[in-house]
Amino acid sequence: MARYQYDKKALKGLTPFPFLGEVKTRTAAIEAAPATLPKSIYNPNILAARLHPSVQHCIIQKVTDHGDAKSFTLVPDAAKGTTEMAYFRASQYVSVALNINGAPVHKPYTIRSNPKDALGTEGTSYTLTIKRTNPAFASAYILDNWKEGDSVDISGPLGDFYYQDLRDAKQVIAIAGGSGITPFYSMAAAIVDGIEDFRMTILYGSRKADGILLKEEIEALAAKSGGKVKVVHVLSEEEKDGYEHGFITAELIRKYAPEGEYSVFMCGPKAMYIFGEEQCKKLGLPKRLYRMEMSGDYMGVVNNPDYPKEQIGKSYSLTVDIRGEKTVIPCKADESLLWAMERAGIKAPAHCRSGECGWCHSRLVKGKVYIPAEADGRRLGDIKFNWIHPCVSFPLSDIELCVFPTAE
Ligand code: FES
């Protein structure tokens, strides 16, 4: 039996001879070309630069006060070369470049606005809603200092907490804690505008009714969604008609869960994630159907069950090697290597601050670190060759680290 079955007639007349002159033809074309680099710009490169700018120079156009939070509307600063805000998926974040008393810091904040606001090339904007949270270091600085007309630099859109219809169910239970409403606000706006196509019930946890961030705004979006977006307020410190009371438990999720399959998205403090994951397990949800927004500093490392408790209160030396120039700084055991570098005024690369984006990827030359398992985004090659993410690495000894800052 023949090894390959094909219609030999289809290949009739096809010989290698027409190709034999190709090298000669190509060589002649190269020799005839001018000795200058081609000027053509490829559309994929233009698109990539528009979607993934390394930096966006912005002006704060408007500040809205919400009490212990503020919303900042950012527009492109054309004088500095940014002519449009990059398009983003609802729930993505940007990392904001700050200099706080000499400490260069990058902090991630969710773009709370509708992705439609960044479409087109004119009048594009982002809105960030920032709450005075713990650690208040950067958010307090922003709330106390940013004002209309100021210039700020931010990264391109980052993060993958957005809805993915290949993986996520068509119905989503969104669990929000405090300023954790911001990605769901953006998703709700995208659903209302037809940019996203799924149904979402937001279980929105707050302490008291009068402290609910963006309450009227998110309810107005739900009212416009034709039933696709629902909001249920859950108060932990107050009992009131029309509100759920207590924590967002498996029973509460079941009460509002739709018929059929649903995904659970969570955004809020770490304690909420620990509790929320337990509830998802009680509900029997497979891991692919629940996930959390992880960007932001890894907090409370010493409370992790596997953290070596004898380290609490210790301090080590951290030698930072940037292109052969070494600086020695102190680093507390309960602070990440990234925090220690920033505090010492070292401009270390960072975006997510949670081990996800890989931006801070650095080489551990000497020493031992503790890396929380759930924030360990290293690949096998990283582990083998001692690459770590300083944003989620905590010293267990004196450390030497090679850091590779990126040009902005
Ligand atoms: S800043 Fe993203 S992995 Fe460290």
Question: What can you tell me about this protein's structure?
Answer:
The chain is an alpha/beta fold. It folds into 3 domains: 107 residues, Elongation Factor Tu (Ef-tu), domain 3 (Beta Barrel); 122 residues, Rossmann fold; 94 residues, Ubiquitin-like (UB roll) (Roll). The protein is 20% helix and 26% strand. It contains 9 helices and 19 strands. Strands 4-3-6-1-2-5 form a 6-stranded antiparallel sheet, with helices on one face. A 6-stranded parallel sheet has the order 10-9-8-7-11-12, with helices on both faces. The protein has a 5-stranded mixed sheet with strand order 14-13-19-15-17. α5 links the parallel β8 and β9. α4 packs parallel to α5. The longest helix has 13 residues. The mean pLDDT is 93. The chain binds FE2/S2 (inorganic) cluster. FE2/S2 (inorganic) cluster binds next to loops.
Rough shape? globular
CATH homologous superfamily assignment of the largest domain: Nucleotide-binding domain of ferredoxin-NADP reductase (FNR) module
Proper CATH architecture of the largest domain? 3-Layer(aba) Sandwich
Ligand inventory reads:
FE2/S2 (inorganic) cluster
Please identify the top-level CATH class of the largest domain.
Alpha Beta
Distance between the termini: 63 Å
Structural class: alpha/beta
Number of helices: 9
Uncertain regions spanning at least 5 consecutive residues = none
Number of strands: 19
Q: What strand order characterises the main sheet? A: 4-3-6-1-2-5
Gyration radius, to the nearest Å? Answer: 26 Å
- The domain tally reads 3
H-E string: HHEEEEEHEEHEHEEHEHEEEHEEHEEE
Compute the average pLDDT. 93
